[in-house]
């Protein structure tokens, strides 16, 4: 069916706003396409370097223009559980490509850091910037001009957005994203959270905490909570970069391997040598981006994508705003309850019907555009499936169920968990911010309390341990924006604030930094812009000022007069210790050139 008129209206305004940028982007893309198979423009010396290690048969194939060559961009490393399975993918992809009459080469590797390892550590200040570094690294790999299509191996937080920016920067090439899937379920996420809060209160020790964490993160695959990594996988499927049904199949299983082989063959089928040429930059358009935002709202996805989706869209000449994201949230119902928005993990989500059921429900009432292109073909309807193996070990697909296998995890569009989505924009005399409300109880959607100012998260932790925070308050944690220190996640604030909230206090967070993609039950106005280092209003808040956060009306206010606020001198902070150590000195150019949060916090566009 046609998209809901409200969805169409928001899409139309994105199209209109984007027109000047999108037209230039598509003109450049089409110019690249007219140059044909790019190995043909390489000199003999260029080409000899490009296939020096290939077999004589492969050299003969690559010397011509008739057979497709896939460039593999891999984020493999064996420290990240989500990326460790990619170790064997290049060999599998090369073999599948050969069976399909093509070639595949690893074009390059990109860095892949783990936010779970760096939370609260200096390395977290590189995390957001790693997205743009990943895009550049992938661009270097593809710049060799040897390839007819690209396959991207990546899963986690900044890695997929960085790879998408690269794929759209090389938008004349078809691109397929091949996931690795989530780890099997371990210690339930709510139990892990309980132990974290007990540790924050000093009621259990490090040994008990480490045991709980190790039972939660226990094997290969993505962490099973619904944070940024799994939101990435949802996005790649609903936007059409994944093969249907491939997002949440566990690693090292026959179905996972069959999906990888199938994606390889499909990548060869959509090159310019075939009849289904699907350049990534033509495939992804404003409708695809809106579908991604709708999926994020319907699943209660990661706040980080209020940054990443804007940066990803801009790479294709599409101008998405926080207002668009917030307005879509007012339209789209919440259909999934996955931790931290519920007790289930992504394996339970997949077992309940997963992406196929979700997309079927969204299509039913026109919340997503069906008339889009995907790597699988035309139309999102093809993604309303459940994947299985056929008798020959190949991927088979059956229609997704009409009824959820577990209505407590995945609801129908007629009986949603709530009528609106999970993310909203807040505006007021402090600027603009984002809040995730899908896991916040309704009675906490409005918080009005005095401010307590902190210039780093450790200061808040110390105040909590010293018993100074047993009262109603709004924690203002500033100088955490992209220009100040790379906009680290402040996920370690969740346990102490959660403890205080459970004690009955009204608490909230206001920050120009980020929370984890798994941020949950505490009201948090994050990504505040202008940031404190730019003398934004957040830098003028003083201890004791009353702050009103209203997620219902979408407002964030400090209750002082405009005259008084403007007269105050902005606070300053000594940021010198953020400028060196753990590689931070290497990213000084990023801190100097990064754009604002509501523009995607990107070094590519301000």
Q: Which structural class is indicated by helix and strand composition?
A: alpha/beta
Level-2 CATH architecture of the largest domain:
3-Layer(aba) Sandwich
The number of helical segments is 22
User: How confident overall, as mean pLDDT?
Assistant: 93
Number of domains: 2
Give me the side-by-side strand order of the main sheet. Answer: 9-10-14-13-12-11-15-16
Number of beta strands: 16
List low-confidence stretches: none
Shape: globular
> CATH homologous superfamily of the largest domain?
Response regulator
**Proportion in β-strands:** 5-15%
- Give Rg in angstroms: 24 Å
Helix share of residues? 25-40%
State the end-to-end distance: 37 Å
- In CATH terms, what is the fold-level topology of the largest domain? Rossmann fold
Q: Largest sheet, if any?
A: 8 strands, mixed
Overview in brief:
With 606 residues, the chain is α/β, with parallel strands linked by helices. It is built from 22 helices and 16 strands.
């Amino acid at each position: 069916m046609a998209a809901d008129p409200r969805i169409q209206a928001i899409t139309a305004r994105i199209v209109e706003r984007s027109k000047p940028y999108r037209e230039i982007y598509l003109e450049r893309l089409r110019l690249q396409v007219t140059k044909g198979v790019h190995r043909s423009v390489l000199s003999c010396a260029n080409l000899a370097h490009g296939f020096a290690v290939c077999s004589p048969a492969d050299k003969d194939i690559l010397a011509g223009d008739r057979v497709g060559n896939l460039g593999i961009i891999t984020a493999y490393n064996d420290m990240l559980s989500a990326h460790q399975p990619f170790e064997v993918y290049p060999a599998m992809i090369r073999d599948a490509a050969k069976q399909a009459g093509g070639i595949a080469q690893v074009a390059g590797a990109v860095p892949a850091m783990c936010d779970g390892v760096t939370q609260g550590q200096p390395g977290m200040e590189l995390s957001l910037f790693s997205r743009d570094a990943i895009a550049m690294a992938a661009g270097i790999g593809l710049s060799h001009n040897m390839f007819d299509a690209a396959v991207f191996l990546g899963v986690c937080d900044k890695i997929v957005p960085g790879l998408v920016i690269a794929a759209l920067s090389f938008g004349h090439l078809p691109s397929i994203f091949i996931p690795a899937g989530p780890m099997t379920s371990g210690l339930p996420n709510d139990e892990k959270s309980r132990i974290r809060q007990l540790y924050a209160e000093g009621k259990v020790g490090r040994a008990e905490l480490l045991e709980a964490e190790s039972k939660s993160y226990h094997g290969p695959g993505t962490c099973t909570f619904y944070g940024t990594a799994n939101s990435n996988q949802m996005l790649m499927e609903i936007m059409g970069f994944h093969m249907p049904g491939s997002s949440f199949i566990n690693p090292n299983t026959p179905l996972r391997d069959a999906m990888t082989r199938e994606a390889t063959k499909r990548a060869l089928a959509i090159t310019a040598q075939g009849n289904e040429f699907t350049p990534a930059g033509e495939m992804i358009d404003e409708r695809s981006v809106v579908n991604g935002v709708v999926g994020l709202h319907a699943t209660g996805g990661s706040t980080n994508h209020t940054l990443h989706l804007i940066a990803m869209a801009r790479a294709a000449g599409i101008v998405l705003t926080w207002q668009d994201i917030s307005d879509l949230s007012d339209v789209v119902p919440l259909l999934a309850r996955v931790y931290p928005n519920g007790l289930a993990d992504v394996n339970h989500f997949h077992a309940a019907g997963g992406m196929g059921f979700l997309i079927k429900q969204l299509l039913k009432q026109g919340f997503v555009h069906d008339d889009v292109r995907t790597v699988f073909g035309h139309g999102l309807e093809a993604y309303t499936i459940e994947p299985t193996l056929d008798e020959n070990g190949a991927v088979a697909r059956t229609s997704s169920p009409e009824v959820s296998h577990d209505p407590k995890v995945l609801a129908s569009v007629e009986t949603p968990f709530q009528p609106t989505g999970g993310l909203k924009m807040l505006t007021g005399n402090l600027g603009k911010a984002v809040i995730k409300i899908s896991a916040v109880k309704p009675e906490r959607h409005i918080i009005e309390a005095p401010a307590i100012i902190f210039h780093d998260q450790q200061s808040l932790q110390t105040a909590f341990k010293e018993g100074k925070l047993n009262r109603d308050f709004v924690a203002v944690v500033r100088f955490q924006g992209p220009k100040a220190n790379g906009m680290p996640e402040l996920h370690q604030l969740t346990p102490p604030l959660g403890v205080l909230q459970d004690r009955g206090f009204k608490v909230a967070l206001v920050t120009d930094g980020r929370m984890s993609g798994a941020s949950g039950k505490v009201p948090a106005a994050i990504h505040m812009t202008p940031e404190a280092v730019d003398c934004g209003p957040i830098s003028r808040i003083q201890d004791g000022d009353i702050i009103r956060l209203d997620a219902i009306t979408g407002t964030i206010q400090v209750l002082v007069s405009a005259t008084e606020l403007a007269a105050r001198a902005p606070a300053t902070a000594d940021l010198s210790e953020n400028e060196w150590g753990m590689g931070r000195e290497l990213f000084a150019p990023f801190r100097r050139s990064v754009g604002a949060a509501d523009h995607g916090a990107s070094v590519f566009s301000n």
